[in-house]
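Posting this for the archive.
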Amino acid sequence: MSGPLIITGTGTGVGKTIATAALAARLGAPGTVAAVKPAQTGVGPGEPGDIDEIIRLAAPDAAVELARYPDPLAPDTAARQAGADPLTLGRVVEAVEALAAAHDHVLIEGAGGVLVRLGAEGFTLLDVAAALSAPLVVVAAAGLGTLNHTALTCRAVEAAGARCAGVVIGSWPEDPDLAARCNLTDLPEVTGAALLGRIPAGAGTLGREEFTAGARQWLSGEAAQR
């Protein structure tokens, strides 16, 4: 399956950027891949952001960051604090559609969770999903508490009429505890979505060749079919 795919998370710090890079590496073998970061926050001018990390790890065929704000806040709040024009839904859709016309896959990495306001009129990734008819992959934590957070996120996606293409564990510990091990079985049950894979903790420190080879092991074939 090709076209736009949105990567969201159950919150901040769950590994969305590394998961996006892994998906880019996984999907790049059968086709061309573009990555889009609609809104980058907490990074100053000239500093490397999430899209730079994706480029470093996976070398997508195209990579675009649409808006950047220095304060580590929700994008609409960060734009207001910076006195900058807020991002618009139309700009995101236009950028993705242009990339989709030239690439087999377009990965859109969100900011924070699925209901974080990205810009003008408080639009969220769910509005992006509706405008593009795009499914979402949810990146989740490994351990205790993730069942509730992930189920809530998947239910929000479904309530908006969008489709959850699956769940990826963004940072799988080297020595998983009982809760993490049980979550491998329980996550698909409580979310109704396939567990597409688990990315080992520290994967972002790997070089591109090793990361790309690893991504084919970390993510199941379902990640390419979604």
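The domain at 3-225 is CATH 3.40.50.300 (Rossmann fold). The mean pLDDT is 95.
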